[in-house]
Amino acid sequence: MTDIEITREENETRGRFVTIVEGQEAELTFSKTNPTLIIADHTGVPEDLGGRGIARKLVEALVADAREKGYKVIPLCPYVKAQYQRHPEWADVFA
To answer: Taking the domain 7-93, which CATH number applies?
Structure first.
């Protein structure tokens, strides 16, 4: 998969990392518990876009953002949790 553009959107209590691929939206949503802790609660990629690494790119964007902004992530989403377990080098951002 070539590079995709991922945008971070948020309001006071929730947010998401989102990308549009071939006219379809993929996202990783999160809830804010406080300014230094969020819960990654859902990753969704349309079925026909599966297997292209889009969900992983969304998690990578989350990890990079957490490092840049200094918050921790609780991986409630099964996909995010599985990626975290595969990448011990991300331990600094997961709570």
So the answer is: 3.40.630.30
